[in-house]
Structures are given as C-alpha cells and as structure tokens.
Amino acid sequence: MTAHTRLRVRPYVLTGGRSETEVDLSLEAVLAATELGRTSLGALQLEREQLVAIAVDSVALTEMAARLSLPVAVVRVLVGDLVADGMLEVTADAAASTARPDVDMLEKVLDGLQSL
Amino acid sequence: MFDNLSLRSTMLATAAVPVGVLGLVALWSALSGGVAVAVACVMGAVVTAVVAVRQSRRLTERVATVAESARRLTDSELPALLDEASRPAARSSDQPDDDLDVNAAASERSTTSLLWPDDELTAVMEAITGVTPAVSGLLDRRRAVIDGNLRRVVERLTRRTESLLNEQLAYIDWLEDTEQQPDRLQQLYRLDHLTNRARRSTESVLVLAEAAADRPRSEPSPIDTVVRVAIGETSAYSRIKLAAIDPAWVAAEASFDLAHLLAELLENATGHTADGAEVEVFAVRLATGDYRITVVDHGPGMAELELTSANVLLADPPRFSIEQGATIGLTVIARLAQRLDAIVDLTATPGGGVTAVVTVPGDALASAPSADAAAADGAAAADRRRGATADADPETPTDRDRPARPPTEGRSHADTSVEAPVAVATGPQRRQRSAASRPLDLAPRLEASDHDPAEVQAVISRYRDGLEAEVAGADSPGRERR
Fold first, then answer.
1. What is the mean pLDDT of each run of 10 residues along chain B (482 residues)?
2. Quick check: ipTM above 0.95?
C-alpha cells in the first residue's frame, strides 16, 4: 500500500462532512479575495488562510485545488464558505452565465490538447 | 500420616537406655557407699531424661511441620497452580488471592527451614519448598509460549485486515477524487469515515497484542495534520473543534502513534458527552520544548476515584488480558503513550467534564525544516502540502518512491502568512501547473459564449479524431485545422 502509509487528512474532516456549498459555485468559477479577506489574512485557520492568500490575485477554483493538492470537491466547499463569509468573491463563473461553451473556446481547447 | 505419639514413644524408649544405665550405676554406687558418685549419677540420669524428652518434642514438631507442608503442597498449592494454568488469560485480575497464598506458603516454609539444624529432615523440608517455585516457573514458561503464539496469530490476522482496509481506503480515495455529484460524494464520505474507524480499531488490536508499529516511515507531518487525522478517525468527528494550534512538525515515526492516541482520547471525550456538545482541542508548544495537546470535554465527567484509577492505569498499563473489558481504550492510550514516551493525564474540567492532557517530549517533534530548502526546491513545498493536506492522486507509486525529504517550512498552517502560497506558487510540480493554468485562460471566454450545437458537435468529433490519430501513431491529420 502506498496511499495510507502517510498521514492524510480525510476530505470529510476538511469540509465537516459537507459536500454541498451554501453559495452557487461551479468548478469554472474565478475568485478573488475581498477587502475583508485581505485584512483577515493571518487570522484565519489552516486551509481557509491558504485559500484567501492564493486568491489575493484572482484565481480559478480548480487552480486553488491544484496548488493545495486538495480534491476540487473539497476546495469547492471551503471556498463556498469563504464566499458566504465575505472573504472571497466570485469574479467570473461560466456555468452561472451560460449553459454551454462557445465554439471559439472549444477550438482553443482543441489546439491546446493537440499541442501537448 | 505419621503417628506422633508412637514416634515420640520410640524416641523416648531410645533415650531410656542411657537413663537406665545411669540409674543402675547410681544404685550400685549407693550400695557400695560412694554417695557422691551416686548423687552425680542420679543427676546425670535426670538431665539425660529431660534432654531426651525435650529433643524428642522438637523433633516431633519438625516432622509434623514437614508433614503439614507436604500435605498442603499436594492438597492445595499444586492444584491451585494447575487450576490457574488451565486459564491462561485469566491471570492477574481473576485469581490474585490464590497466587498470594501459594507464594506466602512457600516463603513461610523457607524461613522455617532456615532456623533448623543442618540435618536430613531439613533437607526434606527444603526439597518440599523447592517444588512450588519449580512448577510455577515451568508453568510460566509454558504460558509465555502459548501467549506468544496467540499474539502472533492475532497479529497476523489483524495485519491482514488492516491491509484490506488500507486497500479499501485507497479505492475510496480514488472514487472521491473523481466524484463531482454532491449527494454521491456525501455517501462516499460516510463510507470513508466508517472505514477509517474500522482501521483505527484494527490498529488498537495490534497495539494490545504488543505488535510493533509496522507502518513505513515517511516524512514529518505538521501537527495540524496529525490532530485532524485523529479527528477523522473519531465517530462524532463533527463535534470536535480545533480551538488553537501552535506550529510544529511531528517526526515520521511518532506521527501515526500520536494520531492514534489522540483519536482514542477524542473518542472517549465525544462518547461521554451529549449529542451536539463540542469537544475542544488545544495544541501548544511549551517553553520546555515539549508539546502539549489538551482535549477538553464538558460532559458529566468522572468521579475522583475513577479519575485516579484511570490515571494509574495510564501510567502503568496491564498486560494483554481478556478481562480488560471497559478499560481497553485506556490501555491502548497508555501503550501508545509508552511508545511515544508521552505522558497522558486526566483531570476534571472546571465546571464539569474531563480534560485529557497529552505531553509529548520534544524528541517526538521534527526540527523546523529550513527556509533554504524551500528556495532550492519548490517541489518540496508541494510535497509538504501533500503531506499536510491530501493527496490528489493517492495511488501514484511516487508517494512511496519519492525520497523522504524534510518539509521546507516550519510555519504551521494555523498562522500561515501570505508567503506560504507564494512558496508553493514559485515551484509547483509541473503536472499541477499545466492543469491549473488552463482554466485561468479559458474561464473569462466561457462567459461570453454564443454557440451552435451542431458546430460544437463538429469540434468535439474532430477532437476525438485527433486523439485517435495520435493514439494510432499516425502523423496526426487531426492536427490540421479545418
């Protein structure tokens, strides 16, 4: 076994057992720290502190998850809490404004994938 | 059985010979006019008779003692020893009185025989005295062999269960990482929680069986990770509040045991408080260099006597025994504390409840990893994050293969300042960066989308074609645009 030979905080501990957010938040959401968030830096706990610090420059939810090496589903719940608390704000959320991606964008995705 | 009376008369009869001879000499002396000689002989006869009577009495007493010892040996001591041996697990708690009797009898015998003259009777007494310790030692050795075998069987079976549970957890990890549906994720969390609790109780069996910790050493863990791993192994984890935590790193070899110990304490605390009542955890570094973790509950608490006996047990845990029953949790805590060289003390919480104080020696802490290492190698920072939080990809073999590098920052997550994420951002692992940069670029454009479903479909099918071409190794016709 590889995975559990080291200590890993279980995801349900990080989210307090929740899998749903209070605010509507898609995985494509881009977030930024609010004024309250910035001034609260240094007084927040653990992942909350790290997430607000990352979002000082606006950043995508998925990138936040990648930087903390946390499951996206966990970060989504934590970020949802921070948005509800007024520490973070959603600056862009594709899923909230439209149901489907446009063709230009898909072309770019294709380009990107092919150039990998 | 001896007939004391007949033994004694035999001895007296033997003594009567010199007395009779002296009496005859005295009579002869008196008749021939030697008064002085006659008087001396009479006195000699009297003294001889008295000495003979006294000696016979002492000898009779000694024989009686030997006889009594032999009787007790066969009638009670040996049966008691054998009886005790037939119940291997029921030792200390069940039959302390018998044990005491046997020992007391043996020591009484040996002190008795010490006062005796060095003769054949004493030798017999010493032989009888030696029987009980010899049998007892033999039985102890046999019991040790049986106990050892039993422990090995328990250990082997438990390790198998533990390894199955670890496999199950890895599978749950994978499911959780790929699941996006909140309601299904919720179910997975419950399964995850149950599996973690099962693993903890499995590991408790290993602790009780005095099996050595067998988890591969990895790298130091931040104390907040250790505490929260413990919280995750507790039934009512959502009632536990991490109230304060000073930054520290726990040495790799201590981290699993400490997490297990804390989980047992948290289980006790949440188990003895009402639903909805919070249990608080405070983790502070002491001026002495030691680290102290305090678990505070506000439940009904324990009586003074209960607290005292619990602390006695914590300080000196009993051996593995079937009779442990209600104290199993405490015994596990005590054993783990011994391994960690930590001190666990229970006190009353002011206003009601129990406060458990764990003092971990400074040796169990890892030194704060240096800042230079962070600058030199950003990937180490990412490693630390992985250790500190969660593995995005738990099944990658690199988890084990990656060299155990000391984490790069001594700072705890509790007081991470703005710098912490910067350190991560300067050198994330390549895979993470490429995964992360794309959504950044795409998201704003997604916002202003305007589309025709047929066109979208066309793009998707071309994408698929391109992938297939690439897999087939053809020189990618899919790369060409429309």
1. 62 76 80 80 83 84 87 87 68 47 68 77 85 87 85 91 93 92 94 95 89 69 94 95 92 92 95 91 94 95 91 84 68 93 95 95 77 40 38 37 36 35 32 31 32 57 57 45 38
2. no
Measure in Å the smallest separation between the Cα of A86 and chain B Cα atoms: 18
DSSP for B113-166 reads HHTS-SSHHHHHHHHHHHHHHHHHHHHHHHHHHHHHHHHHHHHHHHHHHHHHHH
A41 — contact with chain B (CB < 8 Å)? Answer: yes
Nearest to A5 by CA among B151, B157, B396: B396
Cβ contacts of residue B290 below 8 Å, gap of 6+? B359, B360, B361, B362
Q: Are B6 and B60 in contact (CB under 8 A)?
A: no
* Nearest-Cα residue of chain A relative to residue B471: A114
CA pair distance B432, B425, nearest whole angstrom: 10
Q: Which are the contacts of B193, defined by CB distance < 8 A and separation ≥ 6?
A: A10, A12, A17, B232, B237
Identify which of B232, B395, B481 has the shortest CB distance to residue A10: B232
Asked if A85 is an interface residue toward chain B (Cβ–Cβ < 8 A), one would say no
- B452 lies within 8 A of chain A by CB: yes
CA–chain centroid gap for A23, Å, is 13
In angstroms, what CA-CA distances link A49 with A22, B52, B119, B207, B391?
19, 100, 87, 37, 19
Check if the beta carbon of residue B404 is closer than 8 Å to that of residue B369: no
Q: Name, in order, each residue with C-beta under 8 angstroms of B468's C-beta and a sequence gap of 6 or more.
A: B478
pTM of the model: 0.62
- Residue B19: its H or E element: helix B4-31
> In Å, how far is B288's CA from the nearest CA of chain A?
25
- Report which of B226, B247, B213 is spatially closest to residue B367, judged by C-alpha positions: B247
Chain B residues with CB-CB distance to A97 below 8 A = 447
**Closest approach of A88 to chain B, Cα-based (Å):** 15
| CB-CB neighbors (< 8 A) of A66 in chain B | 392, 428, 432-433, 435-436
Do A8 and B391 meet the contact criterion of CB atoms below 8 Å apart? yes
Mutation to test the B interface, candidates A18, A23, A69, A116, most B Cβ within 10 Å: A69
Mutation to test the B interface, candidates A2, A5, A7, most B Cβ within 10 Å: A7
